[in-house]
Amino acid sequence: RVHPKFLHSNATSHKWALGAFAELFDNAFDEVASGATYVNVDMLENKKAGNRMLLIEDNGGGMDPEKMRQCMSLGYSAKSKLANTIGQYGNGFKTSTMRLGADVIVFSRCPGKDGKSSTQSIGLLSYTFLRSTGKEDIVVPMLDYERRDSEWSKLGRSSLIDWDKNVKTIVQWSPFSSEEDLLRQFDLMNDRGTRIIIYNLWEDDQGMLELDFDSDPHDIQLRGVNRDEKSIKMASQFPNSRHFLTYKHSLRSYVSILYLRIPPGFRIILRGTDVEHHNVVNDMMQTEQITYRPQYGADSYSKDSNMSAVVVIGFVKDAKHHVDVQGFNVYHKNRLIKPFWRIWNAAGSDGRGVIGVLEANFVEPAHDKQGFE
Fold it and tell me: What are its GO biological-process terms (predicted)?
């Protein structure tokens, strides 16, 4: 049994909201193996409540009813079983969605494999519902349908009474007004994929949404401490330092450097416009490649060939303007874990303008994938 208050405390493992987005991108990225060709992030209007919601969708393999339950129930993570996956709809799904908003509704359609019929499922993980109804357990109402011949029909795990109860709960606590209205979401996907809608987005102490949809119609930005007007102004002046100056508050800037390599033909779409993939190496001049091997003790190097990383190091092209840009982008299995990690803090200007990129697969990322264990 898991009490609903854990949903909230669980999500605080993400201090930084953009780090929560990154985990949702990871899940979509892992769907490339199932044929996903895009991940799309957008803002939607909640007609029922008159406020704004977040959409994250991909056209990957979707989740069957079983996988959907694993994804949305607490304490489950399949990630450890699968090599080479960075996301996996496991625990990261819960911590990241709950970090961005109080409630999430998921629509997923999965083509039938091995002679099984295709399915589609709807699940609601709603902190508002659990809190308002005083639940002691995390209850996740779900609806499953299967395709028989050319019709979608209810796939009931129990009685019709339970089905109707789930429909009623989902309709009452979601942005949708009827079962027909819910099912219309599936018209927006082809034969497979997952559509995640996060709503009742968190607000700051002033009652403003933490996410800023207005500063740039093609971006999602953060208000508050991550936003530094001086850096934003400098970014337009020094284009080669733009990512360093803006990744903390701009999702578009952060996602463009989130992966070292993008699968061929895969698109990341943010609010209607493709995100242009960016390799920080292109911002450098006088670059050098160094093979880094961790040292153990006084003079023993690791003999294990996997225990090494190729570091590309150089000066940022704007270095002559003495812009205070420095640090290393450290990736793990293609995914950025430490953006512009400052290796030293010098009192003077030592190290200013020096940036580097490396992929360190021999260390394990921390739980929130924003640091190493």
Answer: chromatin organization; DNA repair; positive regulation of defense response; regulatory ncRNA-mediated gene silencing
